[in-house]
Amino acid sequence: MLGFMMKDFLYFRRNTRLFALMVVLYLVFGFSMSNVAAISGMLSMLGLIVVLNCFTADEAAHWDEYGLSLPVSRKNAVRARYLLGLLLMLVSLVLVLISAVILCSLNSSLVLSEEVSACILTPVLLLLISSASMPLCYKYGVEKGRVAMMAMIMVIFLLIFGGATLLSRDGSVSRAISQASGDELPAPILLCTALISLALYYVSYRFSLRFYINREF
Question: Taking a C-beta distance cutoff of 8 angstroms, is the pair 40, 78 a contact?
């Protein structure tokens, strides 16, 4: 399984400097705006793009036709890709948490708990997008996976703003939210959202595994 993950990393060894430069630019942009949410969104999206590009690289190199002729397991191939996605999300989360601590120490107007809440929520939402797009990549190919990703972004966008609009019309809910500390999400809600995203990510893995095992190349 580690071999499959190394294969994905080796796809981008020629672009290591480019990705490192993009990370630095995102950090500089976020620090200049004192906006941790912007850093979180950009770095998390970069991790998702890397995973989808792995599917593109596999298709371009006809890896599935060649690699599956070797004594390797399709289950390990799918598991490695999902672990890679989870690892990239964790790396981006660690970078954003470090950025949040530094920004809050430099800017007294920022509240650490609020910034941490914002930077955790974005990778969780992008994990949902990844959960929807990866099974389609395994079943139909990367192009339909990208379409699913764009559709999920629109759906999540509409749900967030639609839900916010409905909650704002409920006076009791609005007062309860306003009594919460600023923009900080309650810890139970944040924890439940993260657990639901991880559960759906596992369900997505099971679907991808079934599609990949039954797929003929």
Answer: no
Q: What is the pLDDT of residues 193-204, one digit of tens each?
A: 888 889 999 999
**Tokens describing residue 122:** 């974005």
User: For tokens 């959202």, what's the residue?
Assistant: 193
- Which residue do the tokens 């490192």 mark? 20
For the chain, the maximum distance between any two Cα atoms, rounded to a whole number of angstroms, is: 62
3 state SS for 77-89: HHHHHHHHHHHHH
Give the gyration radius of the chain's Cα atoms: 19
CB environment 21-39: b (16+ within 10 A), e (fewer): eebeebbeebbeeebbbbb
Q: Taking the model in full, what pTM does it have?
A: 0.79
What is the distance, to the nearest Å, from the Cα of residue 195 to the centroid of all Cα atoms in its chain? 14
Supply 187's token pair. Answer: 């810890």
Q: What is the DSSP letter of 68?
A: T
For residue 183, the surrounding DSSP H or E stretch is none
